[in-house]
Design goal:
The complex is a heterodimer of chains A (138) and B (129).
Chain A: E1 7-11, H1 18-34, E2 39-41, H2 44-49, H3 52-60, E3 63-67, H4 73-81, E4 87-90, H5 112-137
Parallel strand pairs in A: 1-2, 1-3, 3-4
Helix pairs in contact in A: 1-5
Chain B: E1 5-9, H1 16-32, E2 38-39, H2 42-47, H3 52-59, E3 61-66, H4 72-79, E4 86-89, H5 90-96, H6 109-124
Parallel strand pairs in B: 1-2, 1-3, 3-4
The chains are: A alpha/beta (138), B alpha/beta (129).
């Protein structure tokens, strides 16, 4: 079985609004349900705090960032401390009411369909990136 | 002392203890001390150009919940020039409450929720709010 690198998933995990939680839940769905064998978690707090392992992975292998709002902390942080993500997803492009879902900061309720849609799109990006990696590494 | 209080869980996504920090933050903001804390996105502190989030951390009384000994939330606060006034670490609380071992990150289970409550109560210990 040839080695094919996995894709790093980086969610903003923001605690100020529901969309941060949506980013987290979408990432967890990809990591644990949709593509558990093709992806790895990159912990954004650990990444930003300076962990060389997390930063080193994102320097060499492709990453998908999922941000809750237009501040794009996951995307900006990844680019700032490592390298540009291969794909950047912004939850704001999937919701109609901006960041108003404050009551979903900790538990997603009404926005479950948004989580599912974003997770499916991330999984499709993972498949595309893995196919490209398979060509490069085999 | 400022009357602004900022609560920052590490929200780590690599281990179940990161989820426990979020559950503890939920308990504190919605159940144990509603209206007392403002939450600030941890990632904003480190990445925002304007420095607005970092400024909030520098001027408020800061409560931090870290999941593991890497102390990412504390490191970020201090990197931004803030001071961690009140701190709790999930694994330390877990070491004193071995029966509260959380389940996986996608469902920390009843024991994980009990642990989160113990973490929240530990953070409030000795603090008058």
């Amino acid at each position: 079985m040839p080695f094919i690198p996995k894709v790093g998933i980086i969610a903003c995990n923001g605690e100020e609004c529901g969309c941060g939680n949506i980013s987290r839940q979408a990432a967890l769905k990809v990591l644990h349900e949709l593509r558990p064998h093709d992806t790895v978690t990159i912990c954004l707090p650990l990444f930003l705090a300076g962990d060389s392992g997390e930063r080193g992975f994102a320097e060499v292998f492709p990453t998908v960032t999922i941000d809750g709002c237009n501040k794009l902390c996951a995307t900006r942080g990844t680019a700032m401390y490592s390298s540009e993500p291969a794909v950047s997803i912004n939850v704001q492009e999937y919701v109609s009411d901006g960041c108003a879902a404050e009551d979903e900061r900790w538990v997603v309720t009404e926005s479950r369909a948004v989580v599912d849609r974003i997770a499916e799109e991330v999984a499709a990006h993972v498949d595309r990136l893995r196919a490209r990696l398979a060509e490069e590494w085999t | 002392m400022t009357d602004q209080r900022v609560l920052i869980p590490c929200s780590g996504i690599g281990k179940a203890v990161g989820e426990v920090t979020r559950e503890a933050a939920r308990l504190l903001t919605e159940e144990l001390r509603p209206g007392v804390f403002e939450t600030v996105c941890l990632a904003r502190i480190m990445t925002e150009d304007s420095g607005a989030a970092a400024e909030r951390v520098r001027t408020a009384e800061v409560f931090v919940i870290d999941g593991c000994p890497k102390k990412c939330a504390s490191v970020s606060v201090e990197h931004a020039g803030g001071r961690v006034d009140h701190h709790v670490m999930v694994v330390r609380v877990l070491s004193k409450n071995r029966s509260m071992r959380p389940g996986p990150i996608v469902d920390i289970g009843d024991a994980g929720k009990q642990l989160a409550r113990a973490v929240a109560e530990e953070l409030l210990r000795g603090v008058v709010l």
